[in-house]
Amino acid sequence: MGDDLGTPCLRFERQGSIGWCVIDRPEARNALTPAMYFGIKRAVQLVNADPNLAALIITGTGDVFAPGGDLGGRSEPGEQPIPPGVAQDILPFLTIRDSRAPVVAAVNGICQAGGLLIAMLSDIAVASDRATFRVPELLRGIPDATYAAVLPAHVGIAAARDLLLSARAFDAAEAQRLGVISRVVPHDELRDAAVAAVRQILRTAPEARTHVKRMLNERYGFIDYQTMFNALEHSDEPREGMRAFMEKRPPRWVPPDLT
Q: What is the per-residue pLDDT across 118-171, written as a single tens digit (0 to 9) for each?
């Protein structure tokens, strides 16, 4: 595989013992194709398998980190096909969470949906003071199981209800205050701050760190993917949510007097 992540929209760069996975699809505002999701997973696996690499930093380009999956279902020329039999295993979230090598998210801008899960499940998320955040899945009719497990563990039940059920946007200062992410820095200092976070993590003993990460990850509890994937396959709500988004109209479940 080498450093090729299977899509031209992800770049893998080496900075000494640190690998960088750069999300670079500006024409689509860094919306993640299936190959891009799988490529981020490959980047984590690459760092864990390469003795010359000790950590991974994930970041985006321009004013967008990642807004989640491409709701238009588009892909890019030159993307490698997803290996047969992988299907739902393309998603990188649990691979990031369970990575032996430290993973730091350098959140440079808009961070929503799957992009925010990448940030939250990294060991440390360092955000630009310009970054904005949102959990929009319910706007699209998606009962996201990862968020239902992860978000309350970060922010508590009351704040998780607020962010999930309202799907409102919030800024970096509120994200840090709530515990969605842990560090906010001036935008121009983001790259250096992400490297500094990696250096801090790598001063800790790797075997002990792995045990602590396992114990911390147990706080997330059960992730009910069966319910989520069943809804995606059989419910009309996700399809209506996607159509409404693409047609720039409210979904039909929104009362007409509230649109």
A: 999 999 999 999 999 999 999 999 999 999 999 999 999 999 999 999 999 999
Question: Which residue from 59, 168, 64, 62 is spatially nearest to 109, judged by alpha carbons?
Answer: 64
pLDDT at 88: 66
Could you tell me the two tokens for 49?
A: 């398998």
Q: Could you tell me if residue 129 is inside a domain?
A: yes
User: What region, left, alpha or beta, does residue 73 occupy, with left being phi > 0 and alpha being psi -120 to 50 degrees?
Assistant: left
Q: Which two tokens stand for residue 21?
A: 């996975």
Closest CA to 28 of 4, 64, 78: 64
Question: 16-45 as b/e, with b when 16 or more CB fall inside 10 Å?
Answer: eebbbbbbbbeebebbbbbbbbbbbbbbbb
What are the φ/ψ torsions at residue 239 (nearest 5 degrees)?
A: -65, -40
Range of the domain at 139: 10-220
Q: 3-class DSSP state for residue 47?
A: helix
d(CA 66, CA 13): 18
- Identity at 190, one-letter amino acid code: L
Looking at the structure of the chain, the number of domains it has is 1
pTM above 0.90, yes or no: yes
pLDDT of residue 86: 60
